[in-house]
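Supplementary notes for students who missed Thursday's class. We covered one full example, reproduced here. Read the sequence, then the structure, then the short commentary at the end.
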Amino acid sequence: MTDRRIRALHVIPSLSPKHGGPSYAVRALAQALASVDVDVTIATTDDDGDDARFNVPIGEPIKADATTIYYFKRTFLPYKVSFGLARWLQSNISKFDVVHIHALFSFSSTVAAHIAHRQGVPYVVRPLGVLNRYGLENRRPLLKKITMPLFEWRILRHSAAIHYTSEAEKREAAQISPEVDCHRSVVIPLPVESANGSAEDFIKRFRQAAGRRVILFLSRIDPKKGIELLLEAFVEGCRGLNDVVLVIAGEGSPRYMDTLRARAKELQIDDRVIWTSHLSGAVKAGAFAAAEIFVLPSYSENFGIAAAEAIAGGVPTIVTKSVGLADEIRAADAGIVVEPTAAEIGSSLKRLLQDQQARDSLAANAKSFASEHLSPVKIGAALKTLYRQAIIA
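Structure (token representation):
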């Protein structure tokens, strides 16, 4: 095993950017593993959020950078059931040295874990933050109470390890069950590199931001993200600062988006909020480059990939204590950590907008933190070590 490359299979319900961080994370992990000579294959569905599907070849290998991706038709929307994915896993999982399962409470994770266990292939589970109180109580709580003892505990019990991306995520999961607390686990963060974008790429697309100071939120639009808090905080934190705009970048359900726009209008800031929808590529990198401050006001976040991206780019960042990386950010003075309240977020916004020296200090500390803790090569090496330990166990 030490003389040949590890063949790792990653299984995830969807790679759609509409689902936010998890889709980005799998690709980032695959690239980090490629940098340390691990061969990565991703098996997923053609799900592109809601009723949409990717226009991709089904069941055929697709090369993406150093990764091979297989897409399979999503048979049913709930839990992204895919019979084609199940058949492929049954026939191919034994060709891999280790399986990395992303998500719980999903058809793909249940099937992959069952087949890997039956065929003697070790697997690692990354639960994506669902083993915390918010996830269990606010997303299909009754159904989770039923499926947890039937499927999820078995998936975790037979795994070689649970992969958490922050100490906070691990602590919260440990409170769910002594069995989870005692099971072998590792904390390996997600890899992030600075996008090195140009603000002009963003401003050319959104002329309303030209000549303005930008406060940026970039993530999936969801009630757990605390965007209402940010809208209220903007009112107080930017009172009298008419050159400041709030950029809300991301996608969510049309009904929820309408609710947020209505709230901005009630607060009389609708003319100072720029709704960009999902951003990617040069425009996304440009948004980070244009931002004077980044804010992630979430009520629950197992890691906080958008905040990590901002930090890697040296953007002064405010996060709530409910963001998984909050403890690490506070310890490195790489950002400001606040309670999830409009008052605290607004106060921090006001202070940073008025204090260039504070912004410069946070930016420098943030870049150092990202270089030390979020380096793709370091994270790839840590995952490679985890895989080797799982294989020889």
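Commentary. The mean pLDDT is 93. The longest helix spans residues 141-158. If anything here is unclear, bring it to office hours.
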